[in-house]
Amino acid sequence: MPLAETQNAWVKPALIGVGLVTLLRVLALWGSPTDLYVDESQYWLWGQSLDFGYYSKPPMIGWVLRLFDELTPVRSAFSVRLPAPLIHGVTAMILGAWAARIAPAHRFVGLWAAMAYLSLPIVAVGSFLISTDTIMAPFFIGALALYWRLCAGGGARHAVFGGLLLGLAFLSKYAAVYFVPGAVIAYALYPSMRPRGKHLAVFAFAFLIAAAPNILWNIANDLTTVSHTMDNAAWLKSESVGPRPSVTRALEFVASQFGVIGPVLMVLWIAALRAPAPGRQRALIWVSIPVWAIVLIQAYLSRAYANWAFAAIPAATITAILFALDTNRRRALWAALGLNAALSLLIPLLTLFPLWIKDGNGQPLAKRYVNVAAITQDAIALARANGITTITATNRGILADFFFTGADSGLAFYAAPPKGAPRHYYEQEKPLPPDVTGPVLYVGYNDTLNCGGTPVVPVASLTQEVGSWANKALPAYIVNAECLR
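Above: the chain's sequence. Below: its structure in token form.
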């Protein structure tokens, strides 16, 4: 059999496996009765006003959701989330191609990598929710794969396309900059990871060309997105009280990584740390270590969510797989995939039957995605019953669904004007305009409303017995717009 056919033997079974898993996830997503979470609704709204940057994230997710909004005939939670399983399916094939290029001696390593990626619990979650990690993944992994190809003797075209992909990853999520410490450490440690100087310059220049729109947008908008990103590391800001070290938070983050990648794969990755391997294969480890180290420090000093280290996971997955194949631990690989697949099955169950699995308070375990739209629908009905065409709120979670669920209602939605600096996107970009006068409906959240020092009596209390707003009475007031300014 020709060498090329041998090296590509993994592609057909991977396409079948990835296609089947992706199809099942799309069908489960289509059948899910859950609503969008606040972040998902906000990402969708960004796409309605295309720009090179937004309040808290770079622009790619808004662009992608706008594309799908134009392509799908009916706007729904399904249409907003549809890119997620499709993008992860594409990403799995890119990861498989990268693995096959790194270790061509293992005929089906590409298949192992693609299917292992789809089995990761964090990818299972990311296939049912739309997030910036999902949007970044194919660009980031594609950039890594082309950089590895560049180090293996690739040419200018690999440098150009690799840099452009890294720039697109940056436009998706700033976590793409984690590429840099891994590449620098690998360059220092392994001669095989040192591309030619001119190719490295071309790679960097191509990155800057792709990333420039958002960089320039930030400069023109007082570094809005950068400033918000720094909020996640609050201890670094001048007005912060400083670091709040916590070993408990650090240990919780470490434990979370066993959950997002799967316990068996994580153990295999740890075992690979001291195992001998060729330079370009061993350099994979340094794609992951700096990411985990940086986020671990952040968790210790302030806070960190499990997905903040997503950039470490694709390369860690390949590292674990190659270690298992090199040391003839295929049973461990099967165990890893089997356990991850079992864990991943919980996600479609939670989304298809969200009312079945409950927490200790009798609420759905996935309550943040249940009955979110009901409050918006109740507010719209209340406004129409009182002949009001403008609805306002202060809370970001309430506003997010107002704009999505109420998009085709014919009513106008605004954030109440902030008392000081805007605290979120809606106060910055969607405040109540000065020319809006007369009565408006204001939906509060754990607050009372005063007009000229006189308390206003709410006309209704909006709540739900089950789901996101369960046991949270949201007072609704009818007031003149001037009262909110």
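DSSP finds 22 helices and seven strands in the chain.
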